[in-house]
Amino acid sequence: MKDEEIDHPQAMKIRQGIQDAMTYSLPDKNFSPKKIDVIEVDIELDNLGWDFHNFRILNLCDIHMGQWINPEYLDDLIDYVNTLNYDIVTLTGDYVSYVIDGYDEALKKSLGKLKSPGGKFGVLGNHDHWMGSDKIREIFDQCDIVDLSNDVRLLSRGDDKLNLAGVDSCTVCADNLDAVLAKLDDDYPTILLAHEPDFAHESSQTGRIDLQISGHSHGGQLIIPIVETTPFRGPNSTKYPVGLYKVGEMTQYTSKGLGTNSFRIRINCKPEITIITLKTKNKQRIPVE
Ligand SMILES: [Fe+2]
Q: Which pLDDT tens digit goes with each residue over 208-229?
């Protein structure tokens, strides 16, 4: 988005009005599980404790409420998510696009009823900042979503622990990786939520992040078969636009996201719910009699 549009909310409201008209005029605007890919990814982490082996992280991102996804669609999608098998939910940003007023209650209702046995954890995207980070953080608060913007939580499971961290959006220069690094417990592996996938270039160089989970790119909204990548790459999603990457020693996963922030077009690029299953590389513990 151009800066002059950010400074002119009226222009964004007009743009949103056009998008609303497009969304609601489409004949096929209801949620169906057939419209969504549930992508299952196994990721091995060094030094992951056995109590976290097979730990399942369900990630949602790029809802962009009001464009592809209307309030009814999101509500039905969350009902579907609640039927899936996972331990925690992560949310990697861009809940809205061009306006938030009129959609905040719907977001609260749906994200509030999103179930998660081990908690819900989120970061913000560039659009969330453009539309009002305070309003998104208030929704987080009311929906029991832990705000991981430049923050860390140490998750426990049995005798083992895992750092779950997040950085705020680098597109708007809200990221503070140093603050995250200062809070990590280096005895345990670390997963970082970062809206923009190309932040992997920076996070991987610390040598202290094992896995970064991102969105932002929407998979370019077009994926070329066989090579399974996209030619459409925007700022901060040019290097790692879709799927799984190895960046130095770090693993990067970029989701295709759920919505769009432009036209309702996705070619060979279905919206995505991601379930990452963590696998340990540690040797099996054998109890000694
Ligand atoms: Fe984004």
A: 999 999 999 988 888 888 888 8
What is the 149 CA–ligand 1 centroid distance (Å)? 15
In terms of CATH architecture, what is 3-280? 4-Layer Sandwich (3.60)
Residue 40 C-alpha to ligand 1 middle, in angstroms? Answer: 22
Q: How far is CA 232 from CA 95, 200, 240, 242, 267, in A?
A: 21, 19, 12, 11, 12
Write down the pTM of the prediction: 0.91
Measured distance CA(144)–CA(177) in Å, rounded: 24
Domain locations in the chain as residue ranges: 3-280
93 Cα to the center of ligand 1, angstroms: 7
Residue 110, classified by CB atoms within 10 Å of its CB into exposed (0-12), middle (13-18) or buried (19+), is: buried
